Amino acid sequence: MTLNKGSLFSMSDEPAVSTQDRLRKRRQNINVLFRRDSELRGKLAIYFGAILIILATVSLTLFLVWQGLRLFLFDGVNPLHFIFSNDWNPGDSAHPTYGAFPMIFGSFAITFLSALIATPISIGTALFMSEISRKWGNKALRPVIEILVGIPSVVYGLIGLTLIIPFIAHHGGGIGYGLLPGMIVVGLMIMPTITSIAADALQSIPQELKSASYALGATRWQTIYKVIIPAALPSLLTAVVLGMARAFGEALAVQMVIGNVTDIPHSMVNPAATLTTIITLHMGNTTSGSAFNHALWSLGLILLIMSYIFILIIRYLSRRSKVL
Amino acid sequence: MQTLVDVKEVYSTEGLSLWYDKKQALKDVNVSIFEKQVTAIIGPSGCGKSTFLKTLNRMVELEPKITIKGRISYRGNNLYDKHYPVEQLRHRVGMVFQKANPFPKSIYNNIAFGPRLRGIKNKQLLNEIVERSLKQAALWDEVRDKLNQDANRLSGGQQQRLCLARCLAVDPDVILMDEPTSALDPIATAKVEELVHQLKQQYSIIIVTHNMEQAKRVSDQTAFFLNGELIEQRKTSELFAKPFHKETADYISGRFG
């Protein structure tokens, strides 16, 4: 519209066409061309992006499945043995054994233990942000939590290594490595994730519900645990599951504090290992095509399957929240 | 006022003023609310009628930055006394909101919410309360077979009657209604009005309404608010027949608002 106006203006006011005007006119022509095409180009760009993402996901899954199954197809390892046995020693050249249960156990232990400590603190913080002091929560707490999310995991690992492990070792926890520091470090890492999602969920509870509860004579605490938490429960669970998914996939920080010993730990302060820590520890040292390398891919396949399961749980939970 | 000598006062306010931050919403309001009567509060939007209603169960305190001056007596006690137990007050004074707001729970648990807050755990007793309250709200016949169904699946009119039943379940003394039919169709509205008519045998009801016909139909007393001030409060029939003030006459004849 403005372009048309401009051209009319220049034509009526200045019969002698200047260079500047000619240039301007040409630019308009180009603009018109651009605009006619922009619809199609935008569409193409969007479709290209969407298809690229789908292709990447599908091919990544197929590749990992193929790589992960090689151990069972070509190296003659029984998948049941792989999942349920404790004898992880794929580096032994004479009698390599492939029982990955200690890592599977370690991953699940870290996931649930860290969720166990992070959940109450996170939900409490989220309740503070949405119910106790919304203004202070949004002004001060939310930025702090965003910073916590942004801190690289290696920094969390370093803090665990230099502060938590000596502390545990000093207080009678052996050498300090194990599930306990792992749980603290990972719990700290997933706390901001759970908090921010839970706070969003709690803040989206309609004011009318709270009013109804207060008007019936409920105290603030009664309103929180009888109305707000039940109404937000599916979203709160989603937040926890997302946190657990993050904990399950965390490699670097855990590797720095867990000790990386592939045994089932006898206590919280005995060194252990998780799927991710063993993969990062050995991936660079194995030759591709070797059984050891295939075994690491199989560990990766378990991680992939677990992340798919986490996504399924989240989808199930969020579908349920819509029905409510 | 001579005829009202033997009628008990539930609420009386003296010089009640209220500010949201710096904006004054109520100006020196003096009202008397009588027992077992329906008091309608009418006035144009933003005249402070909802705010006034919310001062009566202190729900207004949930808004940020309010200042209150003056005195509200409920059954002889000053409500805004620091030591007045606000939760107990709200057990005695129920409220129905403009928009039906059932909890995302079953019908049964919606009704049982209030009694449970007061510590009633006996299953038998709760069942009785739920049935009585739903009957009082004329909803029992429609929901008796689906008490465990999600309350949000009821129709808008049913939800509003459920909210009424929910506040009846705690056996209140006063029921506050904030434009309870503004979101309902005429049939559902008629049902709620019919209920108001029946309930005033047992309860004192204060109803904020936009609809002057509704005020005429359901109320015994009418209070007319304008710009935060109480212009006049009288028997409904008298107020609508010959209002004292010009503003009242203008409003009820539809000249503004």
UniProtKB/TrEMBL annotation, chain B:
Residues 5-252 form the ABC transporter domain. GO terms for biological process: phosphate ion transmembrane transport. GO terms for molecular function: ATP binding; ATP hydrolysis activity; phosphate transmembrane transporter activity. Signal peptide: none annotated. This is Phosphate import ATP-binding protein PstB. GO terms for cellular component: membrane. Keywords: ATP-binding, Nucleotide-binding, Transport. InterPro entries: AAA+_ATPase, ABC_transporter-like_ATP-bd, ABC_transporter-like_CS, P-loop_NTPase, PstB-like.
